[in-house]
Amino acid sequence: MMRRNTSFIILDDIQKVQHNHSFLCKEIINEFVEKSFSQVLIACNRPNEFYDTELEQIIKEKRVGKWELTGISVPDIYSSICNNFNQEIAKLIKLFPSPVSVLHLELLIKNLNKRNIIRVSKEKKGAIFSDAYNETNTLNYQFAVNKIRKCGYLNILYIVYKIESGVPVTLLQEFYNDQYFIASKSFVQESLVKEENAALMPFHDIYLYAENKDINYQVPICHMWRTESAQTEMEVSVCANGKEYRQ
């Protein structure tokens, strides 16, 4: 049973840890499970995509619990759209394949809100929903490419996607000044970058692995792994200190 003062440490996308950093990661995990700090370590990763398979094996051996996240359910999708709009608009999702990921659903809701679908006539709602669905379909390779092409801050995007692990916001503000301030107003709506721990990083892998060929310089982002990448299952592993956690 967990104590009330238990704290949580989350390692997201730990499969991306490179070999030159994996030794430190392994040592931290080994020390973490051997001592009692009233903490729980949660590691999230895509199975079978580790750069360092030894790190993957250590997590499998040390964890006390594992959960597989296979995607969002139809009731989740319906209730999310209903809560953001109403039942009339939520029912339109039945005319389309279910969004393939939380990202797709989030972008769909943002797009519908931007189009002000709740205020348009009933006759136009279906067409608007269809356009929004197709524009945000993350299984469509062209979707990610088009979003990057329309980005109004490609120079900032170039740096963030090149470094990938995070660029300090203060550094970007100092270098780009007013240009960064103007661009930052679009970050939340466009969902191409996100801010975490005072650093700017790619919003999602689907953009990082998209290829853009129609701009003056190449944004250094690689080919997508595969079109099914948005549906890849996730694993959530938990490593606990001492006896603070029991499954």
Report strand order across the widest sheet: 1-2-7-3
The proportion of strand residues reads 5-15%
Overall morphology: globular
Measure the end-to-end span.
8 Å
How would you characterize the largest beta sheet?
A: 4 strands, mixed
Number of strands: 7
Describe the structure.
The chain is α+β, with helices and mostly antiparallel strands and 247 residues long. It folds into three domains: 7-70 and 233-240; 74-135; 151-225. The chain has twelve helices and seven strands. It has helices at residues 19-34, 53-62, 74-84, 87-90, 102-114, 122-135, 141-149, 154-163, 169-176, 178-184, 187-190, 205-208; strands spanning 7-11, 39-45, 65-69, 167-168, 193-196, 199-202, 234-240. The strands form two sheets. The chain has a four-stranded mixed β-sheet. Strands 4-6-5 form a three-stranded antiparallel β-sheet. Strand 5 (193-196) and strand 6 (199-202) form a beta hairpin. The radius of gyration is 21 Å and the shape is globular.
Secondary structure topology:
Blueprint: E1 7-11, H1 19-34, E2 39-45, H2 53-62, E3 65-69, H3 74-84, H4 87-90, H5 102-114, H6 122-135, H7 141-149, H8 154-163, E4 167-168, H9 169-176, H10 178-184, H11 187-190, E5 193-196, E6 199-202, H12 205-208, E7 234-240
Helix pairs in contact: 1-2, 9-10
Provide key terms for this protein:
alpha+beta; disordered C terminus; 12 helices; three-stranded antiparallel beta sheet; 45% helix; globular; four-stranded mixed beta sheet; 3 domains; 247 residues
Task: Describe the structure concisely.
With 247 residues, the chain is α+β, with helices and mostly antiparallel strands.
